[in-house]
Amino acid sequence: MEDALSKNRFLWGLLLAWAPWVPTVIGIGYMFVGLNNSKATGLAAVAGGMVELLVWWGIATLIISQVAAIVWLFRSFSGAHISRSLMAAVSIFASGLMLFLVFAFLFWGRRILEPATSR
Questions:
Q1: What radius of gyration do the chain's Cα atoms show?
Q2: pTM of the entire structure?
Q3: Which tens digit of pLDDT belongs to each residue from 67-85?
Q4: What DSSP state is assigned to residue 118?
């Protein structure tokens, strides 16, 4: 019973640890495409408020899911399953890196993106 519970925790932790990387990589690709097609229209200006809301919602969801993934992956460590524990450790590192990148952008990215007159 304990092994099945540990395996379940591992699978959910693994899913939560790697899920944010897929849209992140896709988003970076779209960002480079968007740089070439940077012709803003009225619709883009109206949708800006909605995008801002979704960005904050996404950041909150990302933080919660990464913390949950780390907790589940820590609880899934097992001496009997070395390869699973190794994958859990790599996934914990990936989740920690994602959290670091989010917090780095939130705290230090704001200063970079501020207009020069407000400094």
A1: 19
A2: 0.60
A3: 998 998 888 887 788 888 8
A4: G
